[in-house]
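This part of the workshop introduces the protein records we will be handling. A record pairs a protein's sequence with a compact description of its fold. Comparing a sequence with its tokens is the quickest way to learn the format. To make this concrete, we reproduce a full record directly below:
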Amino acid sequence: WKNTRRPRRLTVEVVVALGLAILLWLYTRSRDRDALDQVPIPVQIQLGSAYLGQYELEVNGTSRVVVSFTGPPSRLRELRRQLQRGQVQVAFTLQVPEERQNDPRYQDVVRVEAANIPVPPGVVAVLPEQGNTIPYTVYRLVERHLPVHLEHVGDAWISQVKLEPPTVMVRGPKDIVERMWTI
């Protein structure tokens, strides 16, 4: 009767030991996380190629977002190397909405999300609630011929100056160029 209990008891001890070993391994792996806090990441914003020459983009304020990262130490070391080489950047290509294409200018913001930040597998990017938007202004560009005018005070010899060419093509933001009468 004792011989049949011993194999069962040994089996239970082995299963309990394996279970404890797995729990210990899971606990140490879950604690094997590190953090990299408050890292400024550059954000590049540009207009789509279809809009080049027709619009001008002005980024208002800083073009960086501050991000914190968590993950395994080995992956964070890889991320640090990428950061030192300037390989971690966020890029946005803007499209001009159809309803805004005739506006002289419009303002909007780019919202940077954690998914936009390229990180190694296993690393999680965490953005703050505030400070993850970048404001920008898009100006509609126009061309216009303007007469050249020389403004002067005094000196009679200035009246003998002839300006060539008498008109020039001016290119710039629509709301500014439309208010110009001479250059």
Observations:
- The first helix runs from residue 2 to 31.
